[in-house]
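re: the backbone from monday

yeah here it is again, tokenized this time
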């Protein structure tokens, strides 16, 4: 799938998108750390799997992903660009399919996956992670 040409302003805006250390991710990390939870950041849970979790708790085998509403097609807040619409539809559908594949691979390997949307309150998201860790 060849990337379509974009105007310079759009290209610059997309280049500024962070892959790790986003505001929702750091808010969740801060809340979990405040609760005394320690974790690794931006690590691949499985050897050979090039997909990195935002947070991992290796001893508990828990992987946490903080998904952006645009990039992961949030059911509440997803938007779809009008320019190059088909390319973006395919790209975003591919992201969702990769997420489901990652979940399946980790679950098959004995991991628990927690997915958090960027719009979720960090305290509520931390409660969900904490509940999984406490099991």
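seq for it, each position gets an aa:
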């Amino acid at each position: 799938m060849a990337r379509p040409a974009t105007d310079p302003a759009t290209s610059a805006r997309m280049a500024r998108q962070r892959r790790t250390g986003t505001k929702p991710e750091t808010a969740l990390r801060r809340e979990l750390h405040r609760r005394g939870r320690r974790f690794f950041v931006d690590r691949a849970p499985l050897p050979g799997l090039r997909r990195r979790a935002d947070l991992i708790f290796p001893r508990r085998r828990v992987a946490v992903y903080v998904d952006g509403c645009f990039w992961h097609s949030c059911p509440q807040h997803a938007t779809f660009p009008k320019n190059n619409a088909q390319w973006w539809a395919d790209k975003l559908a591919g992201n969702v399919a990769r997420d489901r594949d990652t979940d399946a691979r980790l679950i098959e390997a004995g991991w628990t996956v927690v997915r958090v949307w960027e719009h979720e309150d960090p305290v509520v998201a931390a409660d969900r992670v904490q509940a999984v860790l406490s099991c």
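The helical segments are 8-15, 23-34, 85-108, 122-134. Residues 28 and 124 are 9 Å apart (CA to CA).
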